[in-house]
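Researcher: Good morning. I'm working through a list of sequences from a screen, and I'd like to move beyond sequence-only analysis. For each chain I'm collecting a predicted structure so we can compare shapes side by side. This is the next one on the list. No need for commentary yet; just the structure.
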Amino acid sequence: MSRIGTRLGDFFALDDGWSRPVPPIGRRDALTGVVVEAIGVTTLELARSAGAFEDVDAPWWVIYLVMSAAAIAVVFRRHYPVATAVYLAAHMFVTGVVMPEVMGQLALQIIYFVGLFSAMAWGRSRRTALLACSAILVFMLCWVAWQFALGSAVQDVMGDDAPEARGFLPAIPAVVLLTFIINVVYFAGAIVGGQVAWRGARQRAALAEQAATIAAQAESLRRRAVVDERLRIARELHDVVGHHVSVIGVQAAGARRVMGRDPAAAGAALGAIEDSSREAVTQMRSLLGTLRDIEAEAEGEPAATTRRTSGPGVADLPELVASRDGGALRTTYDVVEDRPGAAERLPAAVGLSLYRTVQEALANVTRHSTAGTASVTVRVTEAGPAPFAEVEVLDDGRLRTGTSGSGLGLLGIRERVASHRGQCDIGPRATRGYRVRVRLPLASPTHDGTARPSEVARG
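Model: Good morning. Structure tokens for this chain:
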């Protein structure tokens, strides 16, 4: 019994606090009431013409007034569902006692059914609606039972002479049982049907709420993607400006020292400054163009038809390291591969992250270190269960006094590494100097030649 009670409670959603939105009484409700009134009056007139109301002592206008009193309640079935159901139940009882022939007409039976149905379909509180409808059901069954107890109901159905039994049951028990079944199906059908309608409205509301949530989340993700792209561009811009400005500073200092005694060397330094400044302007324009594309896409406008270049990679590292070689700093570059051409096969995103790491590390050496040498080593391992690409920048200097940075460059390195789920090791060396080491995982090859994501390399 407890299981049945639980299932009934779940079906009728007794613990659900959702309240179905009720529209105001409008033209649709008024039109429904007019149509029901017209159909009811028409069917009553046809029944009266057929002689169905010969035993009714009331005048014809009273019969029509009874129909109108029931039809007008249909207008309020959605706005006041429980009150409408109680009113129509009372209307059914009074009419059935005074004029049972009128109460049994099809139009009124449909109205009573709609009233009970609407109480369950539009009731604000599930408990209140179920309690009211259950009370109506019990009251009506008790009324039918009372009529049978008095014998009037059997007499109305069978007449004065009871026919002989033609089936398994005697005539009177069969009539009683059939009447109870019809009434139970009638009232219970209205209750269950109304609850099914309410559950359908609840499901539609839940789906609409989920759709709104998904749309809001999609908009949030779109904005987050725009913000992430702006942060990426900010890191790129920081790396580009920091690198080229530091190169210009080093070359300018060298040109100033040799300007008087070695004009050729000074001219070469000025040429390097010119090349670095042009490269900086080119990369800044590319980044700002990408930023304009992002702004256009965020505002729903089409982006530029030509997409920006993906940026430098490992192939550009020799030139980058060579641009730092000069003056008091000597730089070296080396590539270690387990397979020939492994560094050239790196994904563009991995190559860009390695390039920006070296760029920021060498810029920090130039600005903040007393180092005389710096080495850059790229290691690429494609074999094994955890292939990786790694870059390591070592120098032999100490922190130069009187210099300080914002820390955004090292933060940018760590964010890049985190986006690849890699490892980052930044800090002073045990002997002397400073080390920046970044290891990024690659896709590991499978036996059939395809690739699968690899776990973060350890050690």
